[in-house]
Structures are given as C-alpha cells and as structure tokens.
Write a structure and sequence with these properties.
Elements (H helix, E strand, L loop, with lengths): L7 H8 L10 E2 L2 E5 L19 H6 L4 E3 L8 E3 L4 E5 L4 H12 L4 E2 L4 E10 L9 E3 L2 E4 L4 E2 L13 E2 L17 E3 L2 H11 L8 H7 L14 E3 L1 E4 L7 H14 L6 E5 L2 H13 L8 E10 L8 H4 L11 H21 L1 H4 L8
Parallel strand pairs: 1-6, 2-5, 2-7, 7-16, 8-13, 9-14, 14-15
Antiparallel strand pairs: 3-4, 4-5, 7-15, 8-16, 9-12, 10-11
Length: 353
C-alpha cells in the first residue's frame, strides 16, 4: 500500500479554526500505539509495511498520513479521530516518540484513550502463542542492581536486586518507574468486552504448542486473558530468565501481578504518559496495553535456552503473523466501542461492572 505524505501546509489548513484561520488542535479520540514493522531499517518508511500497524491503518481507514519528524515514523489519522503512532522498538525510542506526540501542538489528546497493541513473548505457564493479554501491571526489568550470576551467593535465586536494596530478598523501596498500575476498572472492562473474541489459530501453531508438555495453558488454543507485563530493553529468553521475570513481577506488585508477557516498550510508554499526565496533556487513566504472543519466552522441552536463540523466524516467532492479527482482532473491539459510545466515554471512562 502506498500513500503520499500530506504537505505540512495542507495539514495546517485542515486544522484551521473558523476564527481567523488560526490553527486549532485536532481532537483525538483514540491513540493506537504500535512499535515496529518489517520495514524497520528503512528511514523513509511510513509504517505501512506488514507488521503491527498495517492492519490498523488499512482496516480502520487511517488514511491521512501526517509527517512526524520528532518521532520514529509518520502518523496515521482517520476521519473519526483515531491516530496511530509507531514508536520504534525498545524503551528509548518508545519514550521519546510518545513524549514527542504528547507535546505536538497539532493534537488535543486531553480526552484521548490510548491502546498499545503489540506482539510479545509469553510465559507458557500463563498462556499459549497467539493469545492476547490485557496488562493491569507493567514492571520495568532494567531498573535494578545486577551481579553476574557466576558471582552470586549460592542461596540467591539470581543476580537481580531491587534498585535500592542489597540482596534479592530485601523489600522494594520507592517506585521511580519500576512499576505501573493501569486503571483496573478500564482493564477489566476491556477484558470483559473481548474475552470471547475469536483469535487466529493454525495447524502449525497447534503442532508447536503440543511440544510444551507440562504446560497445560501453553497447549490450549489461543485465548484472551488478563496478564501482566515485564518490560526490558534487553531481549531475553530462557528458563532461568523467566523464573526471574516471574519473581520480579511478584516482587514489585507485592504479589498482585503475574508475569505473562515480555516486551521492550511498555514501561517507557507509561513513563512518558505519566509525565504528560503531570502536564495535563493526557489522562493516564485512559490507557490500555494489549500484548499478543508471537513466541514463548521459555524454550520447548528438550532444547536449551542458548539453542532456542537459533530457532529462526519459522520456529521461535512462528506465530508472529497470527499475533499481528490477534492484536487487531481483540484491540479493535475496544477501539470501535470507544468510538460508538464517544458521547459517554468522552467524559467518563468505562469500567467493569
């Protein structure tokens, strides 16, 4: 699909108010946040190559392409107020891109809802590939003290230590961005709305998940659930690393959360939203994170963690296309409901009953 960028002058004319022609911010109803596509290394790409964004752009008719030089990719806007942004992968680009959007004078985001819809690794103890997890808790996996595992005391579970502690057993202290709690009413509303949504499956996925003996939820057909996220700029994989992720999420949520998905952008996205909320640019209570599983973060039985890195896209990310579809299939249900009920949702965010 090809589109040409609308010149900046035309954008300003489209945004002009009736009073004197001065630019008036575009009122945005929903921001769809994506992170990458398969044209990732092309600096001239518009984000429309096959990936997380393309299905949203095509099916939600996000036909207006707006230049966004302060961010990773151009923006896409629909006639009914849905705006798509691609952040780029990992925490630095995600935080910078979201902050740039939040401070962009072309848009009024004060009542906008946000949904980050992206692919992820999944804990086979919690779900199967293709599954879609709404996060209530997001924990940052980078803000910590670290000792090389070859040097840790024998009674330590791993070398990860809370930021302001000296052993893995110490309680966590001040939250300086290690943990984010999304509005539980909104999260559970989104889950209730989408729990019965059909998500893609395939014979190849069925055969692959059948290899995960001892993980009953990993062998189920893909499904929608509430499941929490651990975010790290470092891509990690493996049995012991996943044991750390489970421990880390429980530690920072005081047992309320359960590690389900791994990603590289979520805590950065939420940090930018928090700062923009402090400036009254956005409403942090109107934020959802949906992660869909393209792979397991634990190797299949009989394969070492190191060897699992050699899988290649046909195995390790064999559900990537289905995860792209799952993100749209589940996420679009919520976006369309926000649009349908905008007269109510504009002032009052929905919550689970």
């Amino acid at each position: 699909m090809t589109r040409s960028l609308i010149p900046a002058l035309l954008v300003l004319l489209l945004c002009a108010s009736a009073r004197g022609g001065s630019p008036s911010p575009i009122p945005v109803k929903v921001v769809v946040v994506t992170t990458f596509d398969h044209d990732y290394n092309n600096p001239k790409a518009t984000g429309e190559a096959d990936g997380e964004a393309s299905r949203w752009i095509e099916r939600m008719h996000l036909d207006t392409v707006l230049p966004f030089p302060a961010g990773f990719r151009p923006l896409h806007l629909s006639k009914d107020g849905v705006l798509e942004i691609m952040t780029g992968m990992a925490t630095a680009r995600a935080a910078a891109s979201i902050m740039a959007l939040g401070l962009d004078p072309r848009f009024d985001l004060t009542r906008a809802y946000w949904i980050l819809a992206g692919t992820a690794g999944v804990d086979p103890m919690r779900a199967s590939i293709g599954s879609a997890a709404w996060a209530e808790w997001v924990v940052d996996g980078d803000l910590n003290n670290y000792i090389d595992p070859r040097e840790i005391p024998k009674d330590w579970p791993d070398g990860r230590i809370p930021w302001d502690a000296s052993t893995p057993f110490d309680p966590v202290g001040a939250n300086i961005g290690q943990m984010y709690h999304l509005d539980p009413g909104l999260v559970h509303w989104a889950y209730a709305l989408t729990r019965s949504t059909s998500v893609p499956d395939s014979e190849a996925m069925k055969k692959y998940r059948g290899l995960f003996t001892g993980f009953p939820l990993a062998q189920k057909p893909p499904f929608v659930l509430i499941g929490d996220n651990l975010c790290s700029a470092t891509y990690w994989q493996g049995t012991l690393a996943t044991e750390w992720a489970r421990r880390w999420v429980k530690l920072y949520t005081k047992g309320a959360g359960a590690f389900t998905t791994s990603s590289c952008e979520d805590s950065a996205f939420l940090q930018a939203v928090a700062f923009l909320g402090n400036a009254h640019k956005v409403d942090p209570r109107r934020v959802l994170i949906l992660r869909t599983a393209s792979d397991y973060c634990v190797p299949r039985p009989g394969v070492t963690s190191a060897d699992s890195l050699k899988y290649g896209s046909a195995s390790a990310y064999m559900a990537e296309d289905e995860a792209f579809e799952s993100a749209y299939a589940v996420g679009s249900v919520v976006v369309k409901e926000w649009l349908r009920g905008w007269e109510t949702y504009r002032e009052t965010p929905p919550a689970a009953r």
